[in-house]
Every structure is written in C-alpha cells, then in structure tokens.
# Entry
Amino acid sequence: MNKDMIHEPRFFDNVRALVEWGAEYYGNDTVYSFRPNPRADIVKKSFVEFRDDVRALASELLSMGCAGRHCVVIGKLSYDWATLYYATLSIGGVLIPLDRDWQAEDLAATVERADADFLFCDADLKEKAAVIEEKVRFATPTVYLGGKEDDLSIASLIEKGRKKFEADPDAYFNAPIDAHTMSLLVFTSGTTGKGKGVMLSQNAILSDLSSVIPYMDFGKKTVGVLPPHHTFGSSVMLIGHMMIGSEIYISGGLRYVAKELKEQEPEHLVIVPLYLETFYRRIMANLKEKKKEKLVARMIKVSNAMLKIGIDLRAKLFGEIRAAFGGKVKMIISGGAPINPEILSFFEAIGISTLNGYGITECAPIIAVNRSKNPVRGSVGHVLDIDTVVINNPNEDGEGEIWVTGPNVMLGYFKDEAAT
# Structure
C-alpha cells in the first residue's frame, strides 16, 4: 500500500453496486440529515433507508420508462435530489443536472438541446417548469422535488415504487447498466468554454472518487453546501461520501450555513475557495472588532514553534476561532480556483488542514489533489493514480496546455464532435 494511503481503495462496477454496498457496510449509520423546512425538526436517513428509497424510486422510474432515457433535474441539493441521482443511474438512465438559477428561457433551450424525455424540478420553480414545458414535450408530467400532496412528487413516486419493488425486485437488480456509456450529461460554462455538454460515464465518476478517497482523512460528518449541478457538488459529495460512510447534513441555504456549522459540528468540509475566503474575512473582522489580531498572531507563532518539537496545542489555543465551524473541523477540501497562500497558512496554523486540488468537469472532476499525509503546500497536490498528465508545448516557465488521459476522462461533448 502507498505510504500516503489511509484507507484501502474500493472499486465498484456501477452506482447501483455502490448504494447496495453502502447499506450492507454502514447499515443504520446516518447517510443524510436535513430539515424539510427551516423550522422543522431534523430528519435522519440511514444508509439502509436510503438504499430502500433508491430501490423504490428506481422501480417506479422503470415503470415510467426512464431506463436509458434522458432525465433533467433542476434543483438545489436535497434528499430528493440525491435519491433521484442514485435511482436514475441505478437503472441505466441518463441524468442531466441543470442550474436552478438560470433564466427559464436558457433552461428551456438547454433541455431541448439535451433531448430530454423527463423533467424533475424543485417545487418552487413551477413557473420555470411551465416555460420549459411549452418548448419541450415530455413523456410524463413534471415531477417535483419537495412537492406538495397534490403534486406528482419524488415522495409519491417512492411510495408507489415500494410496492413494485416488493412485487418484482429482479426488475431493479437486472436493469441493464453499461458503466462505460453516458450516465451524466453536465452542461458547463467553465474553463473550457460556454455551453458544452460533457458526457460522463459511471466508470469515470466511480474511478475518479475511488482514486481520491484512500488518501483522505475524512471525518464522519460534513455539511453539504455545494450546488449539485456541478460535478464537484455531485460526484464528490454524493458518490465520495457514500464510499467513506460519512453523514451529509444538507444545508438549508447560504443564510443558514453559519448557524448550521455550529449546530452540526462537522469534521470536514468540501467547499470552493469563495467559501473559504468568506470564512477567513469574517474571522479576521471578528478578531479586529475584539482587538485580538496581535494576540492571535503571537499565539500562532508560539503554536508553530511548539509544532516543530511535536507539541500540538492548536485545538486549545484556537478553540474559540474554530468554534465558528462547530469546533470539530479538521480538514477542508477545496477546488475550483487558487487559494491565497495567506489563507491556507492561517487555517493550517489554527489546526484545520486545507487540501487544495485541481479538476474540470471533463475529468469527473478531479485530476489532482493534495493528500492528508504529506501535502504539498502551494500546489494542487498529486495527480491521481489513474491519470497521466502531460504539459503540452510548455513555455520557458513550464506553462502549457494540460493533457490528461485516464478512465475518468469524459466520453466527449454532446452533439459536438468538433469540440471533442
């Protein structure tokens, strides 16, 4: 085993195999927790309960004809979203996650371009759904995530599907899955241009995360804040955390994050640099307000000196600062943009290891990431074991186009052979 590995690597043939294994391995541990609304009590779902909901929803999706078909989902991260993700992929369907904040006309155009057969949409986006329905003919009426009693909702499909699964479980278990064909169609306007549809297979997603997980010292709980229409928010959060058996508390939204971190006491976070920078600015503003900037700076110097002789006092010295994150966060994984070295040094100094990485949607998404053991500060870490990376035609500074080969690389761009 590689000296930096913390866990034995695990590999899965497809997403259905992963969710079944998760329930068998982690059992009644909590996989998702959330509040149905900001004032509601917290609901907890175990790995077994989640698997059963996936089986039920997948069975109903089979009866609707979703197997092998294009299913658009427009919504924020929710329990319904996670269940739909697993259920669709578990019957060989193609999931197309779109940004709920896009204008209705842009959503409609993208849905039409994606050859969508089914539409799943957050219940508070019915006006946008109506615009999309005017432009695209679907196989069934729109299904709503978080829908009410009179809606065709994910919850109602799960209840219908329970009876179907009980009557014929083999229909679910035998639903064909080709892990090497398109399972996710992700439209990105990121680093490689606007509006390209990235075709990803289940093998790409699973191999990517199976190559990351062994090197990460994950905790048992996190707070999910990333939008799921990005692969960083879906692959890393939904697939990665199923592999490691970690609970995801699904955030109610940006306005609640600060309160949720203190309440939920996560042990690690998966965020983009913007979140990290915001946390840093708030901490520094608070220290300035309390006139503690110089005191903390001196404490950091003392702490760093003690670390050199093997004494770690960071949890005690900086407990008040770390309390803003719930007090238990030991690791932050970040990607999507460079992080200011000053911010990295600060979080490391107070005892929160920040591991930066690099990736793009086209690589499902991770290409390189720092490891919990022996991180390389000021870099995006080690290239994944499954990948080969070449800098093509580097200039005198070593800069050039990054070429990547590996099983996590996309199948191509949807309906765009020239760009592929």
Observations:
- The first strand starts at residue 30 and ends at 34.
- The mean pLDDT is 95.
